[in-house]
Design a protein that fits this description.
With 395 residues, the protein is mainly α. Helices cover 51% and strands 8% of the residues. The strands form 2 sheets. It has a 3-stranded antiparallel β-sheet with strand order 1-2-3, covered by helices on one side.
Amino acid sequence: MSTDTQTPKPRRYRPRGAGTLVKEKSGLFIAKWAYQGKMMSRTTQCYEQEKNGREKALKKLDEFVRPYLESSKIGVIENLAARVRTIKAEGETLEALEEEQRRIKLADLYDAFFDNVNAGTVTESTKGIYRATINRFQRWMDEHYKRVIFIDEVTYPMASEFLTATFKELSVNTYNARLGLMTHMFNILISKNNVWTKFRRHQNTTKFPRRALTKDELKKLLVYAEGLPFDRRMLIYIGIYTGMRLSDCCLLEWKDVHMDRGYITRLPLKTKRHNRPLFVPIHPTLRKVLEEAYARHSHHDGYVSEWNASSYLKNHIGEVVADVFVQCGIKSSNDDYFGFHLLRHTFVSICANSGVPLAVVRNIIGHSSEDVTAHYYHMDQAVCMEAVMKLCVSP
């Protein structure tokens, strides 16, 4: 199923405010642009499959956006003229006007942040987390503090209310990650009065070691997975039979799957900088699921599951996985049902308890050392008993 891939063309970034193209599953390009705080969209009637489809769609996008850009420029000029008159009347300084022009609106928080960082170093999944968190903050502010226009108007009480109201249901690690994200963004965008730096990260008081699923839990999970929609069922099977992280299970591509040779090779998203690809033999049960997925699609040059990949990139897959573990009654911690990483522990433990050397398991799972793999290995007591009973030592 692996196919040769062409060298991707360098991405061309459009100027801010010039709109963008969104490609639907059918290949149709939709033009989208922002105007006066509202999102505008029109179909380009151009498809990726047709010759020069993207170029034609870009021309259409420029035609759609041009009148709005020209209108915006006129509005900017008129606003500047009015401000100049105000400066003369009230004695404001030019420096004060420039400072106000540099202020960032709350509605532009996401775009302003990525205008000030190297977007090429941020993965799509991380961008999805940023976008989801920012959208949540913008909606909350619009509901409770509609008068706030600029990000430097956000006060400590506002931020405190937001954290209390919207992050209280999150785990400690997720809360700290979101707080760190907001702090990082405001550090980049405003030089002083970053209210997020005044909050302390939460301490994880419920220490609960990671573990492997028991045989009964694993059986319960497999039985429940049979009743799930196909893409979700496939995600569970890939996790169980490969031990890969959630990101790699969701973003698995057909070029990574070598069905004829019986293995999966993939460069893990988390450790891709080390350039050590995984080598995972395909279990017969997983082969059946992958063959079914292959038969369901007419093209095989992208993700194995478009639904799983899209849900992961939009930061929605956590809710899906958590619901599966809730329904099965499987907890990954004292108060947390989200436990996809338990499948990685389970894979390592099953392999090791079946007699596979940890060095081999390490290469399959992609760990940097055997010490890390040993951390994932949870000894089966029955295996220990069997090993002791095999001793042939007598007095």
